[in-house]
C-alpha cells in the first residue's frame, strides 16, 4: 500500500512569487485551509519542499 500525504494550505500566496503561486495551484490547492490528498512521490515531495512555509503536511 502506498503512502499518502494530506496537504493543507495554511498561509496565503499573496505576496509570494509567481512560481510559488503556480506550485500551490499545481498541488491542487485553491483557498486557505483547503486540503488535498496526494500520493507520496518524489515529484510531490519536491513541490512541497518549494512551498513548505505555506503548507501543513500529514502522512496518512
Automatic annotation (TrEMBL):
Q: Name one GO cellular component term.
A: cytosolic large ribosomal subunit
> Signal peptide span per the entry?
none
Keyword ATP-binding, does the record have it? no
Q: Which branch of life, at top level?
A: Bacteria
Coiled coil, from the record: none
Q: Which InterPro entries match?
A: Ribo_uL30_ferredoxin-like_sf, Ribosomal_uL30_bac-type, Ribosomal_uL30_ferredoxin-like
List keywords of the entry alphabetically. Ribonucleoprotein, Ribosomal protein
Q: Which Gene3D superfamilies match?
A: Ribosomal protein L30, ferredoxin-like fold domain
Q: Could you confirm whether the keyword Ribosomal protein appears in this record?
A: yes
Quaternary organization = Part of the 50S ribosomal subunit.
Recorded protein name is Large ribosomal subunit protein uL30
UniProt source species? Carboxydothermus pertinax
Native organism taxonomy? Bacteria, Bacillati, Bacillota, Clostridia, Thermoanaerobacterales
Amino acid at each position: 500500500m502506498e503512502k499518502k500525504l494530506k496537504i493543507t494550505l495554511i498561509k496565503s500566496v499573496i505576496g509570494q512569487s509567481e512560481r510559488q503561486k503556480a506550485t500551490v495551484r499545481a498541488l491542487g490547492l485553491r483557498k486557505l485551509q483547503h486540503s488535498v490528498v496526494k500520493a507520496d512521490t518524489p515529484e510531490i515531495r519536491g513541490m512541497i519542499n518549494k512551498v513548505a512555509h505555506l503548507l501543513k503536511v500529514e502522512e496518512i
